[in-house]
Amino acid sequence: MEQLAQLHQYGDIALFVLRVAVASVFVVHGMWKIENGKQMASNLGMSGSGWFFVALGVAEFFGSLALLSGFLTQIAAIGLGVIMLGAIYFKGFKWGVKFTAHDKTGWEFDLVILAACIAILILGAGKIALDNTIFGLY
Q: How many helices (H) and strands (E) does the chain have?
């Protein structure tokens, strides 16, 4: 157990890895929404130009940049967490998507990303972040 307890000294590296992983998911999904917002709206049976999905994509993209750089990290984690709450609501309760599904993405993935956002919100960015450099948070 002592060997495992020694891993705590690498907590800042773990937070950085978590931020990079979550940012990677959001940058990819955000860019897709920006480029295909109208198509996404059409696929979901929503009328209009898809501006909502484009705006959502912009928020995801810039939120991911904030997580990646560690700038205003906790604020970004709140925003991205709210987006994931919306995704869980629509998938699980409005569209009736199961927690897991073999033929499509269930909302289990969204739940894990939400949990990661909550962890980043509570723990902050860690020392490997602009928040530390600019604001001296750690």
A: 6, 0
Tokens of 127: 């020392």
Residue 8 per-residue DSSP state: G
Counting beta carbons within 10 angstroms of the beta carbon of residue 10, is it exposed (0 to 12), middle (13 to 18) or buried (19 or more)? exposed
This prediction has a pTM of: 0.93
Q: How far apart are CA 51 and CA 36, in angstroms?
A: 10
Task: State whether residue 56 is helix, strand or coil.
Answer: helix
Q: Interior CA angle at 50 toward 44 and 55, to 5°? A: 115
In whole angstroms, what is the distance from residue 58 CA to residue 72 CA?
16
- Percent of the chain beyond pLDDT 90? 80
Nearest C-alpha neighbor of 60 from the set 44, 77, 42: 77
Closest CA to 60 of 38, 27, 82, 32: 27
pLDDT in tens, 59-111: 999 999 999 999 999 999 999 999 999 999 999 999 899 999 787 788 999 99
Query: In a 3-state reduction of DSSP, which class is residue 136?
Result: coil
Alpha-helix runs per DSSP H in the chain: 2-5, 11-43, 51-69, 73-88, 108-123, 130-135
